[in-house]
Amino acid sequence: MKKTSSLKISISGVRGIIGDSLTPQLAGAFAQAFGSYVGGGPVIVGRDARASGPMLERAVIAGLLAAGCQPVEVGICPIPSFLILTKESKASGGIAVTASHNPKEWNGLKFISRAGLYLTPLQTEEFLDIYHQGEFTSVGPERLKSLKIEPRPVEPHLRKLLSHFDVELIRRRHFKVTVDCGNGAGIMLAPQLLDALGCETVFLNAEPDGSFVHASEPTPEAIAEIRRVVPRVGAAVGFVQDADADRLALVDERGEALGEEMTLVLAADYVLGRRKGSVVCNLSTTRALDDVAAAHQAPIFRTKIGEINVVEKLLAADPPAVIAGEGNGGVILPEIHPCRDSFAGMGLILEAMASSGKTLSELRDLVPRYVMIKDRIEGSAEQAHRLIGLLKKGYEGRGRVSLLDGLKVDFEDHWIHVRPSNTEPIIRVIAEARTAATAKAALRRLRARIADLQKKI
Fold this sequence. Notes:
Elements: E1 8-10, E2 13-17, H1 24-38, E3 41-47, H2 53-66, E4 69-76, H3 79-88, E5 93-97, E6 106-112, H4 121-133, E7 148-149, H5 155-164, H6 167-173, E8 176-180, H7 190-196, E9 200-204, H8 224-233, E10 237-241, E11 248-251, H9 260-272, E12 278-282, H10 288-295, E13 300-303, H11 307-316, E14 321-326, E15 330-332, H12 342-356, H13 360-365, E16 371-378, H14 381-391, E17 400-402, E18 407-410, E19 414-420, E20 426-433, H15 436-454
Parallel strand pairs: 3-4, 3-5, 4-7, 8-9, 8-10, 12-13, 12-14
Antiparallel strand pairs: 1-2, 2-6, 5-6, 10-11, 14-15, 16-20, 17-18, 18-19, 19-20
Helix pairs in contact: 1-2, 1-4, 3-5, 6-12, 9-10, 9-12
């Protein structure tokens, strides 16, 4: 397969490499198109802590002003706080400058509706039609709005969190916790939340300067520092956030990284033990979540990958969903806001520990164990679709095949999934099984089959 452009435009927004595929000029054009799409009015503008953030933020503000909007600047802000503020302030929409878990050379734009949600596939199509056709609103000087500053953007989010959780129950435990913010946006809210919950907190990488001391994607290999610190300081739990603080990984009191998949599984086990309802997740989420849902006699619905796909199903689920999310550490608690929220994840884990009296490792032992292996190959979405078209023929009649998002095949003792990434020019390849040996063997067979088919593309 030939090398592909790094610019990605999808339901996850726009992402690219700074100085290559993503420039201030491009960011300004997207912002002016978005301002045209929402029809003016106030638009929230914020960012994560990446070094390229201020540059793109200025370009976004310029594009919105050109379209007759009033930008409301919030600076560095966790993305769940940003989404809640957009809705609570009755803004016309929002543009967040962030590339979430992507490496530091990347940045991007996430486009938010007035409901405080990412644009749906239909809304994205309508917005991109304006962008591609260049049909931008351009106002004269008499219609230019002034830039506003919002100095306390996380407060609506903090109020919702503290009104939802049993604050006194958690405070009585006086938990000691360690938090690795990855020098990202999470530090803008984590201290206030954990202090209100009565925690003694040890922070790591807590300067929001965008320096990536480890990969923003909180894999067990990338978070060696917090794994050493948690047992050394006697913390009950370690929390790891990605750059814009919508994803959460867990480290138990022994320093064992539980993996991003376990965040949603443990949160769901606790919520379903207290409330009846359904669960929504994406196709790539661990099978352990199915087991937990079955144990609580809760229906589970799976969607295409992408937060808005999960959220759309959450809002329409029957019976109503009481928890949702993605296996990448994204917990969605609809009573707070229908978005991935690392702070909601923290609250659920602390409340589960406080109410049960169990350690995090003991809670982990109550749910099934699976081994998931994630891999990637270079390739565009178009190349992925051609590959999947050839690949699916070899699995027909051998397992339960889903073409909802790429190709997923469920077997009795494992599953595999191949799909184009929404955020990078790569093809994601995943296998999960009860044992590492079975998962590795499944992935090895899948990679060998892909290598053979690539010669035909």
